[in-house]
Write a structure and sequence with these properties.
This protein is mostly helical. The chain folds into two domains: 209 residues, 3-Layer(aba) Sandwich (Rossmann fold); 88 residues, Tyrosyl-Transfer RNA Synthetase (Orthogonal Bundle). The protein is globular, with a radius of gyration of 21 Å. 40% of the residues are buried. The model has no long low-confidence stretch (mean pLDDT 96). The structure holds adenosine-5'-tetraphosphate (AQP). The site of adenosine-5'-tetraphosphate (AQP) has 20 residues, from helix 1. Adenosine-5'-tetraphosphate binds next to helix 1.
């Protein structure tokens, strides 16, 4: 049985990019693997968060994990800040990282663009992410493909430390990426990825959006003036993004959707996409409503933190011993 680890930041409500790129895989993997899924609240404070909002979002994301189908009997679900091993291992890994490699991370470059000085948390965030993964001797990390570079860094750190001590201190993990949905783009700007924190709410569809909001976002999505429904990432990024979303929610291949809408205008295609999306998200919203304020949720998180701590403490004993830390 393989060990699987991944997480989502509680920086806002989960959108369909997070769902199609990452969460769908979380659910697929839980029957055949030992899965550990985290709400990575320590990552979210790399940018300032309003404390009350953050607390709410942590529980929202946890409830959404369960609403999309994660079962706490099969998967360990917990909140990162409840397991001290993440911060402890992060420091050890920071001391094995180089400023050069961290400055090459595209997310750091994007988020610090044009600023003379950026928050140090944005710079060291990928090391904390490596710690999250290596702490659990993870084999597989299901993520969206915007995280490819961070997974590579995690692998490099594991290999570097294993080589330095000439033994397997860490398991070297592999990323796992979806075929469709690995990178959902913003609806208002198909050159940028869909993001929880983008200022325009119509740039994304959140899993808890009402049908009206879904309709508004899809009907106003940026397309092009050609008028044919054809997948072409270079020339038609907006329509290609909508085709990807349609395909991921309906299970139809992109080529079949292209055939289905041959000769149709963008209006008809978008209208159907609204229906496909609303239908796919309705059961998630319903289940979220049942679970959000339940004891089932708090019990799952308490139990999850205990299980995660038990694994993490063992790893940290091994790591501290390897590095000669402690007495
Ligand atoms: N647009 C996307 N398409 C596919 N997958 C995506 N993911 C994120 N955006 C897309 C995947 O979702 C998981 C959780 O992401 P995260 O919350 O840890 O952080 P993020 O990648 O920074 O996501 P956001 O939504 O853009 O958040 P903010 O705005 O707070 O920075 C990851 O597996 C990610 O790959």
């Amino acid at each position: 049985m393989k060990r699987v680890f991944s997480g989502v930041q509680p920086t806002g409500n989960i959108h369909i990019g997070n769902y199609l790129g990452a969460l769908k895989q979380f659910v697929e993997l839980q029957d055949e693997n030992e899965c550990i899924y985290c709400i990575v609240d320590m990552h979210s404070i790399t940018l300032p968060q309003e404390p009350k909002e953050l607390k709410k979002h942590i529980l929202d994301v946890a409830a959404l994990y369960m609403a999309v189908g994660l079962d706490p009997k099969k998967s360990t679900i917990f909140v990162q800040s409840q397991v001290p091993g993440h911060a402890q291992l992060s420091w050890v890994l920071t001391c094995s990282s180089y400023t050069g490699e961290l400055s090459r991370m595209t997310q750091f470059k994007d988020k610090s663009k044009g600023k003379e000085s950026a928050p140090a948390g944005i710079f060291t965030y990928p090391v904390l992410m490596a710690a999250d993964i290596l702490l659990y001797d993870t084999d597989i990390v299901p993520v969206g493909n915007d995280q490819k570079q961070h997974i590579e860094l995690c692998r490099d750190l594991a290999i570097r430390i294993n080589n330095r001590f000439d033994k397997k201190v860490f398991v070297v993990p592999d990323g796992r990426f979806m075929k469709s949905g690995a990178r959902i783009m913003a609806l208002d700007d198909p050159s940028a990825k869909m993001s929880k924190s983008a200022p325009n709410p119509k740039s994304r569809i959140s899993l808890l959006d009402e049908p009206g909001a879904i309709k508004k976002a899809i009907m106003s999505a940026t397309t092009d003036s050609e008028g044919t429904i054809r997948f072409d990432l270079e020339e038609k990024p907006g329509i290609s993004n909508l085709l990807n979303i349609y395909s991921a929610f309906s299970g139809l291949a992109v080529e079949d959707i292209e055939k289905k809408y041959e000769g149709c205008g963008y209006g008809a295609f978008k209208k159907d996409l609204v229906e496909v999306t609303v239908d796919a998200l309705a059961p998630i919203r319903e289940r979220f409503g049942e679970i959000r304020n339940s004891k089932e949720l708090t019990d799952a998180l308490k139990d999850g933190a205990e299980k995660a701590n038990a694994i993490s403490e063992k790893t940290m004993q091994r790591v501290y011993k390897t590095f000669g830390l402690g007495i």
